[in-house]
Amino acid sequence: xxxxxxxxxxxxxxxxxxxxxxxxxxxxxxxxxxxxxxxxxxxxxxxxxxxxxxxxxxxxxxxxxxxxxxxxxxxxxxxxxxxxxxxxxxxxxxxxxxxxxxxxxxxxxxxxxxxxxxxxxxxxxxxxxxxxxxxxxxxxxxxxxxxxxxxxxxxxxxxxxxxxxxxxxxxxxxxxxxxxxxxxxxxxxxxxxxxxxxxxxxxxxxxxxxxxxxxxxxxxxxxxxxxxxxxxxxxxxxxxxxxxxxxxxxxxxxxxxxxxxxxxxxxxxxxxxxxxxxxx
Length: 280
Prior knowledge:
Blueprint lengths: L7 E3 L13 H10 L2 E6 L4 H13 L3 E5 L22 H14 L11 E10 L6 H18 L3 E6 L2 H10 L6 E3 L6 H9 L2 E5 L9 H9 L5 E3 L21 H12 L3 H15 L4
Parallel strand pairs: 1-2, 2-3, 3-4, 4-5, 5-6, 6-7, 7-8
Helix pairs in contact: 3-4, 8-9
């Protein structure tokens, strides 16, 4: 199957969240009718991975990732810290083992649909200790390197720290900087580290001048599209549920910023995403 057979790929959509329970089947049918035929469900907790896996069995074109979002780490029943308020050895080993097991073809029916490690990362807007977040992210990078899988990385107000960590702990297969929001200079550093930039609803807001300028200038071969639905609504849809069906609108804004045809945006970003996640 050629990547050009699929027009749009939503590289980050929480399609398993309860916000989609009432109309998930009809919504995916509507997406397919618009040429949105591929979608990745990021992982946030081990329990949630199973829901994502089941949806991948139910709907063609879906794949998922296995990771623990820093926002949810302290909610895990086995969460425990050492005397330094960092993850103790047993917890670190458990996290690595859980992620690795999700990719085991001999024990997981959906392992072939598990294509990335994450969503993991750094977030200065949550209460979880930043040092613990850095430790957790390093575990994900180590596991991704062992499995030769790409990463899906979440970053909120921590670009400098994330770039420093990625320089120290190289992600050998790269990945995606999810919901990229930053300048061209920051974007260039991520690209140089082997990452794609996840372009979503942020660029639909005219006030996001730095991010819009970066999206217009960075090579298209370094970009993937995403919605982060049901979160991160597009401009004009504030307060509403975001949806994977809005990917073409994000693509159109990106096409306008770059002064190229939306079909080119669709084709190249879809190829980028399928190549990264080995979906072709």
